[in-house]
């Protein structure tokens, strides 16, 4: 049996970002998938907080050179890669970089603790960039595992603007919902800034609650399954999961990687090989 391909898209991952729910979860999950007969690709933003020399990042020229359009402006996409050793397993992590969006020495907030005004544009750039990068890979993922609010547009883009792209026709999209907070501080222009190709603001209505962006609600509308990544959620996000009719996995901590593998196989209607 050929290995199943899992695309792990995350806004954070140890040791490249500080230890939080998302970064520690992905750090445990990715190598576990690779050790359990799954072929993986990990993609995340190249924040300015990441020390390229320490982590030995280098540009992948054959993947770089694309331009991503955000609000009628072109932004160059640079792809970098690093190898991460995990005991007996070595895996590659790909970083999406752009000077306008990720060069700053902070992740989602500035030095004063204020969320960046352009976080919506940064998320749209990252999600579009992920899809275009995977197209350059020529690598059809069986599972697309999205971790964090910055990945929330990927289910929408894949099921609308990229719905005829052969590479993703068989992909199952799994959205992990965490209690983060940055998604609550996005610009009211989120829908306009996130439009793509022939899509309009109206197409992004599932991502809006009145004038307020609601990224998790939109992602759940277009995903195939959901994982509860954080044990405790606020009232709104807990209600989203309560009303959600998607296949759901509610497990965190040390048992999450093994449970996720089984969950993926279930979505693909396969038996887990012991």
TrEMBL record:
Transmembrane segments: none
Catalyses which reaction(s): [(1->4)-alpha-D-glucosyl](n) + ADP-alpha-D-glucose = [(1->4)-alpha-D-glucosyl](n+1) + ADP + H(+)
Stretches assigned to coiled coil: none
Key words of the record: Glycosyltransferase, Transferase
GO molecular function: alpha-1,4-glucan glucosyltransferase (ADP-glucose donor) activity
SUPFAM superfamilies: UDP-Glycosyltransferase/glycogen phosphorylase (SSF53756)
One Pfam family recorded for the sequence: Glyco_transf_5
Domain of life: Bacteria
InterPro entries: Starch_synth_cat_dom
EC number: 2.4.1.21
Location of the Starch synthase catalytic domain: 5-227
Keyword Glycosyltransferase on entry: yes
Keyword Lipid biosynthesis: no
PANTHER family registered for this protein in UniProt: ALPHA AMYLASE DOMAIN-CONTAINING PROTEIN, GRANULE-BOUND STARCH SYNTHASE 1, CHLOROPLASTIC/AMYLOPLASTIC
Official protein name in the record: starch synthase
Species the sequence originates in: Neolewinella antarctica
Phylogenetic classification of the source organism: Bacteria, Pseudomonadati, Bacteroidota, Saprospiria, Saprospirales
């Amino acid at each position: 049996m050929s290995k199943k391909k899992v695309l792990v898209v995350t806004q954070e991952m140890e040791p490249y970002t500080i230890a939080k729910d998302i970064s520690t979860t992905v750090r445990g999950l990715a190598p576990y998938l690779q050790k359990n007969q799954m072929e993986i690709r990990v993609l995340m933003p190249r924040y300015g907080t990441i020390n390229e020399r320490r982590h030995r990042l280098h540009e992948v020229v054959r993947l770089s050179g694309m331009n991503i359009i955000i609000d009628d402006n072109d932004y160059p996409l640079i792809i970098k890669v690093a190898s991460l050793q995990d005991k007996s397993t070595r895996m590659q992590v790909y970083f999406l970089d752009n000077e306008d969006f990720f060069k700053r020495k902070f992740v989602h907030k500035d030095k004063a603790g204020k969320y960046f005004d352009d976080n919506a544009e940064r998320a749209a750039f990252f999600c579009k960039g992920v899809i275009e990068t995977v197209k350059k890979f020529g690598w059809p993922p069986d599972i697309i595992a999205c971790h964090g609010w910055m990945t929330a547009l990927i289910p929408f883009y894949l099921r609308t603007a990229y719905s005829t792209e052969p590479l993703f026709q068989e992909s199952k999209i799994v959205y992990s919902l965490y209690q983060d907070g940055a998604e609550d501080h996005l610009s009211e222009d989120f829908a306009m800034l996130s439009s793509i190709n022939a899509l309009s603001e109206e197409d992004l209505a599932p991502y809006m609650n009145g004038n307020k962006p609601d990224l998790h609600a939109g992602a759940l509308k277009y995903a195939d399954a959901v994982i509860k990544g954080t044990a405790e959620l606020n009232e709104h996000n807990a209600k989203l999961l309560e009303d959600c009719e998607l296949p759901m996995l509610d497990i965190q901590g040390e048992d999450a990687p093994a449970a996720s593998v089984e969950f993926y196989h279930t979505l693909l209607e396969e038996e887990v090989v012991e």
